[in-house]
Structure formats: C-alpha cells, structure tokens
Fold this protein.
Amino acid sequence: MAFKRVLIAEDSSVIQNLAKKILEFQNFEITSVKNGEQVLQLLDKESFDIVLLDINMPVMDGMECARQIRQLPDAQKAQTPLVAITGNARNYSPEEFKSAGFNDILIKPLNFDALVAKVREFTGGEV
C-alpha cells in the first residue's frame, strides 16, 4: 500500500517535528518546509495528498500560499486538500479561509487527534 503524502508548512520546528512524528506513526509520508514559497517550489516538482499550511509564516504566509496553490496550472495539484493551521483564527473569518481555498482549519495549540482525523478524512487514509 502506498503511503499518503502529507506536506506540512510550519515555521515552528517544535510543531513541525511533533506533527511529523505523530503522522509518521500513522503511516503517512511527511515532507516539511518552513514557508509558503517552499511549498510552491515543492508542488512544482511533486504531488501531495494533503497540504497543512500554517497561516503565519515568513516569506509567504499560508493565506497567500493557498491562493497560489488554487491557481496552479496543474488542475490536480490545484485541487489538493488544504488545511490551515492557525493560532489566531479570530484574525480571519471562516469566509476568508474559504475564499483563500482552504478545505478546513486546525486551531493551535494543535490537538493531535484532530490533526490525524483531518488528514485521514481528506486523504481517505485508513482509520
């Protein structure tokens, strides 16, 4: 069985490493980067089953990154499920997340059970 590929964009290495360990334990294949620009560079060469995007990142934030993913010329990549990870969801309305192209939102501090459940929901991974 091929592992589902998860791309995590998160500038906090603590959260990045925790999420990576937890998802790898659930048999997901994890790639992690620090900002939205790196996400777009990777998507140029590779495909992922889901992208987890922190909203507050240097270089390019999650909102801008999501908008650019939705405009990719490769229709399949443009439809990749996107989940926002944010510590300040109150700064944005649900409509703003939706219009940026997010499928869902996870609030920090991350609930790792919810993280695993969301990733499974969007990738069709085994429960």
Q: What stands out?
A: Residues 24 and 103 are 22 Å apart (CA to CA). The helical segments are 13-25, 36-45, 62-70, 75-78, 94-100, 112-123. The first strand starts at residue 5 and ends at 9.
